[in-house]
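dude i think i finally got it to work??
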Amino acid sequence: MCEKNFLQTTTRDECGKYVVTLPFRDPKHIGSGNGHSRSFALAQFLRNEQRLKKNEALKARYDSVIQEYLDLKHMRQVLPTHDGHAYYIPHHGVLKPESVTTKLREVFNASSPSSNGTSLNAILHAGPVLQSDLTIQILKWRYFRYVFSADIVKMHRQIWVDPKHTPFQRILFRYTRGEIRNFELKTVIFGVNCAPFPPMRVLQQLAADVDLSHPKASNIIQNFMNVDDVLAGADSTEEAQLMVQELQDALNSAGFPLRKWTSNQKEVLAAIQSDQLLNTDFSRSMQKALPKPSVFGRR
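look at this
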């Protein structure tokens, strides 16, 4: 059902980004019988707000996380709705001190029940698991003489949700000392049970779409990625450089920028801007930890 829905409804906008729909179990009646959810989301928002007020620094950081959705145009303000034709998702923050880039992540709870006990996740298909096995990906990666890795910036949020379904991705948010306002999230989000499916399926589609124009990139996207992480390589620096360039071009065409580049050979990433590299210290440690280029491959 998810595959059929994807093939029938997925489009690309004028910038090349993919636009997907949510895989509702009963797409013809998605606005009826869902119950009211705004009051439940409001109660949880107020509880979370009280907790955050005990730590002003944490509250300011979380507010900036949600504000980023507005700054990037990943959500829009709307008028409140109190019927089953919209679903309000409770949200809160989770600290991840070990994260290199994002210390505080937003969490959306699409399993929160509405007034009749039905949640958004309850009326959506979860979709098949398309993620590759990480252990196999790492083993394949180590086979190359010269390796490189990178990840897609905010991969889920680079995919638009069709505007007809964004009413089911509403949240409540208050600016500092302002009133609580209603917003619709415009992209694929974590917390919705089908969230793992669209990004992986979109990458598969992108690989097919660029197969003729960017064959090296198409092969990497199909066979050398684990969710948003690239783990690829080649047996010469020249080939690896060509792969890096093709991959950037192909992913950029769909609005998937890459960051945190690193390699066991600095020449491979000679064309990458310094602010897109993971960091110099990590790259040096990676070159020490991995086998030297001369012992990679079949030679």
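The radius of gyration is 21 Å.
im so relieved honestly
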